């Protein structure tokens, strides 16, 4: 063989090998890239901040041990109650301790944390570890609204929280109930699409079945109810602020109507509903005491009996309504994308790359698909593929309806108000809700909230807050797209 | 007739006392009983007043998961800080009373330190502790609670020591006792009721503190009040664990108060409250 021929063969062989290698590299998924790159940090311990309670069982029992097995890195979990998470993150950041590496961040906090400098911008890491393609496959609502601040990535949306309606299919389908309802109201008994219908159906079922069953119940404790107010207020056409002056407009007629309706609805709900939180409302629905409710996605899974035998869920009362639960969008059709979590890296971390690789791996298509199906960890579908995952679709007989409703809800959902110092505005709302349940006049409550909001805005700086609000209001999920 | 009226009055008084006792004891009963219930019983409506089967699973899981370490941490921290605060506080109080150290103003200044709201100083202390390396350590919290309780101990013990006749101490000194022997042999025994009463309150202050423990711990020395908050999630409340851990956290204080009740009553009714 001539030298030229040999060179040609060698060249062809090298070309083929390079092609094979590069195609192999291109085929590598984000979780594989992260795990591979993280091996050089074997022995390193990263500290992650996670919401206390069920949420933290994910890194404690599932993802943490799995990551350690794959990479040799250790994951130390710091459990923090939700209401203390922001403070703890900020306090460690201000002190420059470097105590935290990876963070769970509620998206509405992201502007404050990012502008304070507590979060590491992630764009460079995303490119370095080739995550951009998989990142794009996160459901658009979460990807476009809960990931960036001023165009920079500060967190990966990791929990598709959204309020949806759960109702008793068997009660709604009952021929006698159907006939009685139609005779009284002139339309079919079906999941309500307006709040007027909701009120009529709720009252009808309560009148017919109480005290064995009530038409509906919600979690009414102020932190939850203020989120429901945000949703209903915008569904009815309300705007939080005048975008030009930044004056609060929450005390409009729409706001008064929403608060008044909320209080009136308590009359057909179980006694004491004003004090109910997430768990009390769940227990009532699961025991068959209520026919309709609105809540986060775990209700739908647990009511269907999914994960009922899990030890971690032994605090949840056994469902009495498996197979009888229907899923629908709440009245108005634009549910609140309430809270949620994004994964971020602390700017003061001493192990930024290691922390980043862990969150990329957690958030990747493959691993997140497994995580959102853990019955006990409260992570809800947030990627396009999660809603159509064949395994998830087969988890229980009605899982396909559940996932379809979640998908629809994510497409039409409304973002939590996310401006500077959002929590102060929400605190005013929380106080307002407490005042509502204690019997104060809705108009007076809203006037007070509006005046508190204006004072907060003045303190922050009208122009500064206006820019933040306009940025938020321009997002697709800020107000219903009519 | 008069006797019957007296009996009726007595009966009404007893009934009133029993009613008030029930009102005050009911939350404690409810806390205990929830810790023995199943989830279905906890959420049942109407409420289940007594569980069908008393079951200890809610406690077992705390031991199995290691959560109960938080009670141990609280015991170590509250216990150590109480001993230190009592020791140094009593010496300081003795000095204030017998040697008039700092005159009257120093005593007032010391007690004024106890009036600072913790929330005001918690973050500066956190920054200081970051620098000192005291965050999430036993010594960090022990030092803090000792410092925070010292003014209370000094103020209380000052009153108890002032009530001890100085002639007793002078006699002991004349008999050849050293000042330290006077303290150990005369002052401490005479102020025993006050010492126990003050120690119990000091222990309870440290035991129940939440804000410092929340800010100054992460994972290593989490105390029981902070551990209880770990059972509250945005979408989950582990009521059974909350109740069981609260019972475990309440029992040591119950025991301490029950054992020292004799001294507590005597201690509270003498010394400091006389001014």
Automatic annotation (TrEMBL), chain A:
CDD domains: PBP2_TMBP_like (cd13585)
A GO CC annotation given for this chain: periplasmic space
UniProt KW keywords: Signal, Transport
Cell compartments where the protein resides: Periplasm
InterPro entries cross-referenced by the UniProt entry: Bact_solute-bd_prot1 (IPR050490), SBP (IPR006059)
Gene3D superfamilies: Periplasmic binding protein-like II
Signal peptide segment: 1-27
Coiled-coil boundaries: none
Main location: periplasm
A Pfam family the protein falls into: SBP_bac_1
Domain of life where this protein originates: Bacteria
Protein family: Belongs to the bacterial solute-binding protein 1 family.
Protein name per UniProt: ABC transporter substrate-binding protein
Species assigned in the record: Hypericibacter terrae
From TrEMBL, chain B:
GO biological process: transmembrane transport
CDD domains the UniProt entry points to: TM_PBP2 (cd06261)
Record carries keyword Cytoplasm: no
Segments passing through the bilayer: 12-33, 71-94, 115-132, 138-161, 182-207, 238-260
Cross-referenced Pfam families: BPD_transp_1
Subcellular location: Cell membrane
Main location: membrane
Cellular-component GO terms for this entry: plasma membrane
Boundaries of every ABC transmembrane type-1 domain copy: 71-260
Ion transport keyword on record: no
Protein name per Swiss-Prot or TrEMBL: Binding-protein-dependent transport systems inner membrane component
Lineage: Bacteria, Pseudomonadati, Pseudomonadota, Alphaproteobacteria, Rhodospirillales
């Amino acid at each position: 063989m001539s030298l030229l021929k040999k060179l040609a063969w060698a060249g062809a062989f090298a070309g083929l090998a390079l092609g094979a290698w590069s195609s192999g590299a291109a085929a590598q998924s984000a979780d594989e890239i992260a795990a591979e790159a993280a091996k050089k940090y074997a022995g390193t311990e990263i500290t992650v901040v996670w919401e206390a309670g069920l949420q933290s069982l994910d890194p404690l029992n599932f993802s943490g041990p799995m990551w350690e097995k794959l990479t040799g890195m250790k994951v130390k979990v710091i459990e923090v109650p939700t209401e203390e998470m922001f403070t703890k993150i900020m306090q460690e950041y201000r002190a420059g301790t470097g105590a935290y590496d990876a963070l769970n961040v509620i998206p509405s906090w992201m502007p404050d944390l990012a502008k304070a400098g507590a979060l590491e911008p992630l764009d460079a890491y995303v490119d370095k570890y080739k995550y951009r393609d998989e990142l794009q496959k996160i459901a658009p609502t979460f990807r476009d609204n809960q990931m960036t601040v001023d165009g920079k990535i500060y967190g990966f949306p990791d929990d598709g929280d959204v309020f949806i309606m759960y109702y008793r299919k068997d009660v709604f389908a009952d021929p006698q109930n159907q006939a009685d309802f139609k005779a009284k109201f002139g339309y079919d008994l079906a999941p309500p699409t307006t709040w007027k219908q909701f009120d009529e159906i709720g009252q009808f079922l309560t009148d017919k079945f109480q005290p064995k069953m009530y038409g509906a119940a919600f979690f009414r404790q102020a932190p939850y109810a203020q989120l429901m107010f945000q949703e209903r207020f915008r569904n009815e056409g309300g705007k939080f602020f005048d975008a030009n002056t930044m004056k609060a407009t929450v005390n409009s007629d729409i706001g008064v109507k929403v608060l008044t309706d909320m209080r009136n609805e308590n009359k057909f709900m179980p006694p004491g509903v004003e004090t109910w939180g997430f768990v009390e409302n769940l227990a009532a629905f699961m025991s068959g005491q209520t026919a309709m409710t609105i809540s986060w996605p775990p209700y739908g899974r647990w009511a269907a009996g999914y994960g009922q035998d899990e030890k971690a869920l032994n605090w949840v009362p056994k469902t009495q309504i498996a197979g009888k639960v229907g899923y629908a969008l709440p009245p108005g059709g634009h549910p609140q994308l309430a809270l949620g979590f994004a994964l971020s890296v602390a700017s003061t971390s001493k192990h930024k790359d290691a922390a980043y690789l862990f969150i990329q791996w957690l958030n990747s298509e493959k691993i997140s698909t497994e995580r959102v199906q853990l019955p006990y960890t409260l992570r809800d579908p947030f990627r396009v593929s999660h809603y159509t995952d064949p395994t998830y679709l087969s988890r229980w007989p009605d899982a396909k309806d559940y996932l379809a409703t979640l998908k629809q809800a994510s497409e039409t959902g409304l973002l939590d108000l996310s401006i500077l110092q959002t929590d102060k505005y929400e605190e005013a709302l929380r106080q307002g809700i407490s005042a509502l349940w204690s019997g104060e006049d809705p108009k007076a409550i809203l006037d007070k909230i509006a005046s508190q909001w204006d004072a907060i805005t003045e303190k922050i700086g009208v122009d500064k807050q206006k820019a933040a609000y306009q940025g938020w209001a321009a997002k697709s999920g800020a107000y219903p797209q009519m | 007739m008069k006797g019957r009226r007296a009996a009726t009055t007595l009966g009404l008084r007893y009934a009133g006392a029993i009613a008030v006792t029930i009102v005050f004891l009911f939350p404690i009963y409810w806390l205990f009983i929830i810790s023995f219930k199943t989830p279905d019983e906890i959420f049942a409506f109407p409420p289940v007043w007594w569980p069908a089967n008393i079951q200890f699973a809610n406690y077992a899981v705390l031991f199995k998961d290691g959560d109960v370490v938080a009670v141990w941490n609280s015991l170590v921290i509250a216990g150590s800080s109480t001993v230190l605060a009592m020791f140094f506080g009593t010496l300081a109080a003795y000095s204030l009373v017998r040697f008039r150290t700092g005159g009257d103003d120093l005593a007032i200044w010391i007690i004024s330190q106890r009036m600072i709201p913790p929330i005001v100083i918690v973050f500066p202390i956190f920054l200081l502790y970051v620098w000192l390396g005291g965050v999430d350590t036993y010594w960090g919290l022990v030092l803090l609670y000792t410092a925070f309780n010292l003014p209370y101990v000094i103020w209380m013990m000052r009153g108890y020591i002032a009530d001890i006749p100085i002639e007793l101490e002078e006699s002991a000194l004349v008999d050849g006792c050293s000042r330290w022997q006077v303290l150990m042999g005369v002052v401490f025994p005479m102020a025993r009721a006050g010492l126990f009463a003050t120690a119990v309150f000091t222990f309870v202050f440290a035991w129940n503190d939440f804000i410092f423990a929340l800010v100054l711990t992460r994972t290593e020395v989490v105390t029981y009040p902070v551990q209880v908050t770990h059972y509250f999630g945005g979408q989950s409340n582990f009521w059974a664990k909350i109740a069981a851990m609260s019972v475990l956290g309440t029992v040591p204080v119950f025991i301490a108060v029950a054992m020292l009740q004799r001294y507590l009553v005597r201690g509270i009714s003498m010394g400091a409250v006389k001014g």
